[in-house]
Amino acid sequence: MKRTNGGITAPKGFMASGIHAGIKASPLLDLALLVSDVEGPIAGVFTKNQIPAAPVILDRLHLKKQYGRAIIINSGNANACTGAHGLKDAEEMAKLVAIRLDISTTSVFVGSTGVIGPRLPMPAIRKGIPSLMQRLRKSGHRDAARAIMTTDTTVKELAIQTRIGKQLVTIGGMAKGSGMIHPDMATMLAYVTTDATIQPKILQVSLREAVHSSFNTISVDGETSTNDTVLCLANGMANNTMIPWHSADHKKFQHALNDVCQALAMKICQDGEGATKIVEILVHGAKTDQDAKVISKTLATSPLVKTALFGEDPNWGRFMVAIGRAGPAIQPKHVEISFDDVTMVKNGQEIIPSRERQVQRVMKKKSYAITVTVGRGKSSAKVWTTDFSYDYVKINASYRS
Amino acid sequence: MKRTNGGITAPKGFMASGIHAGIKASPLLDLALLVSDVEGPIAGVFTKNQIPAAPVILDRLHLKKQYGRAIIINSGNANACTGAHGLKDAEEMAKLVAIRLDISTTSVFVGSTGVIGPRLPMPAIRKGIPSLMQRLRKSGHRDAARAIMTTDTTVKELAIQTRIGKQLVTIGGMAKGSGMIHPDMATMLAYVTTDATIQPKILQVSLREAVHSSFNTISVDGETSTNDTVLCLANGMANNTMIPWHSADHKKFQHALNDVCQALAMKICQDGEGATKIVEILVHGAKTDQDAKVISKTLATSPLVKTALFGEDPNWGRFMVAIGRAGPAIQPKHVEISFDDVTMVKNGQEIIPSRERQVQRVMKKKSYAITVTVGRGKSSAKVWTTDFSYDYVKINASYRS
């Protein structure tokens, strides 16, 4: 398995484009298109929010067919909380692409991200689609990746290659997201492409597993949006033998898919709104997996923990507060807290003499791990989080202004 | 019922004092004492955090007797996560006061607030107690209220009077808290005194109810600390006839106690770390009380909602995201959101023409109400919250530095 150039167009038979259609202020790109030469299996994982945006509703419908060929995505407007009109607009976006490709509307998927509430500026989108089609090319991956950005400060894309049977298989991906990031999905969109030959059911199971070990382990601010979507389109053009269930090839494919999703998730976390740190929180010794998950999420979303990370302050009492209020049963007397390999708290108390200085050195790093043991069992969980900085407040107090 | 001067010493037979003992930097007051002329019923409500501080463990023990006479409280050190040594220190604090008053140690209650982890500087406390005793007086309420402050910027105390039978009964109170404030208690201490004659069991039930409708409805940052304590000491010196269960007098007393606790809670909320706004969030139409509570808390703790409050940005989509991710079942199509009396969202969508300007006018106020209806039933919940400002980050990134 190795990294290769390009993003979503790195696998065989994919083209992409991105333009400024007029949804965002000029000259920002705001409309992206991804097209495969041939139709292929598609898998999707969506937000658990009870108020899904129109494109999420539409994609869930289209996904029933399990096959697709194109994805159109706009930024600057989430097409969320827009009712029946919004659903019609999302359908029209798909239809306009379908007509030009001469395929069924249900083979086209739609994504939107941006402000919630207002209706999509359909005239701009209608007008933009011809030039979006015209610009479709192998080198269009970066424009597409730029066109899905909102408060992102970096373009997020990558591609890797692995051998499946005798064939070289490529997986590419792009993502957007920096605010509203939280385990179990957030305002994030991720699109993954591959030229692997694979059955839709295996693709769906593999994508769900990849999302579980990647996008679902990052947390910037605890939010879960109306629009979160991860889609994976496989066009079979690598001509590998069909990947059998639970085979060595399946494992290899899963491994590569996890790798792409984890790398994209890490790029999102690194670009967390106002983030100056990226911290891995590991919880060990919980009674159940669910308990471990709840404790790790409580730590990852605690404003007092996150401001302490920003302030590089070894104020471990704040971790104790979060561990104690999380809910799951813990053993106060067996709590341990380490910063990278420096253990600061043992048996629920600070180790004497204090290792505050060593911990402070760890906390000055841009990225490090905090390991917490709660002494109730054998379950673990992991989550990546960021700090809360002045800039987090700044970005979010003025997002629409 | 009317407000009267003074705080915890307004009821008959109470004296208080506050000094600088040397736990915090000079000249800040850091040690407070409250003493009743006679022993009386005492009630307490404590943190639900699984890692309670030493004084909480001690107070829970002493409360079994249901009677008390004095409370000693320090700020600058939470005596939390300090193990067996910490419990011994808390006991010694109680004992030193008990010896000087010639009463049982179990009649003395202890409170601590400040940094978690380090042991109490017992030499400073031992040295401070004689002058703390010496300064005990009727006019000491304000010094005591100052001595329990940490990041608080205002002194929080008040007293009210009401007639029970033929007697005038007074209830006084003081509180500290501005960070880690959240429904179900937080790093907050509140001490309430009264000269009412009342049975300990009625006092305990009444205090729990008062806490439920006051301290448990405020949220600054979603934290729940190791030290949260509300104690209510009643010395019977008003000489009213013993208050019978569920009587008109009981209702009157409950009403007055609620009033004191709500006023103290509001003072804490107004002093929320870095808060520039205080916003009442009302949730209607939930299926169950628990559902309403969860939705209101999710809104009150969402960083995206709280930064929008700070930015005075009518970005109602953030409310929709929080409502949709909260968990409890809702009807997206029936969601309504109002800012004071301006309804902005109806049937899950923005009302056209947009009322953004009117809403912006409401959001510019220092205090207002946001009402959310979720269309699933008849249950409601209410919570007070504050905004997230630059200063919240500033205060918490450098609390110990």
List the helices and strands and how they pair.
The structure is a homodimer of 401-residue chains.
Chain A lengths: L1 E3 L9 E6 L11 E16 L7 H10 L3 E11 L5 H19 L6 E8 L6 H13 L6 H7 L8 E9 L2 E10 L12 E6 L5 H13 L5 E2 L9 E6 L13 H23 L7 E9 L2 H13 L1 H8 L6 H9 L10 E4 L2 E5 L2 E2 L5 H8 L3 E7 L5 E8 L3 H8 L4
Parallel strand pairs in A: 4-5, 8-10, 9-16, 11-15
Antiparallel strand pairs in A: 1-6, 2-3, 3-4, 3-10, 6-7, 7-8, 11-16, 12-13, 12-15, 13-14
Structure description:
The structure is a homodimer of 401-residue chains. Chain A has 401 residues and is α+β, with helices and mostly antiparallel strands. Helices cover 33% and strands 28% of the residues of chain A. Chain A folds into 2 domains: 269 residues, L-amino peptidase D-ALA esterase/amidase, CATH 3.60.70.12; 120 residues, Ubiquitin-like (UB roll), CATH 3.10.20. Chain A is built from 11 helices and 16 strands. At the A-B interface, helix 8, helix 9, strand 14 and helix 11 of A face helix 8, helix 9, strand 14 and helix 11 of B.
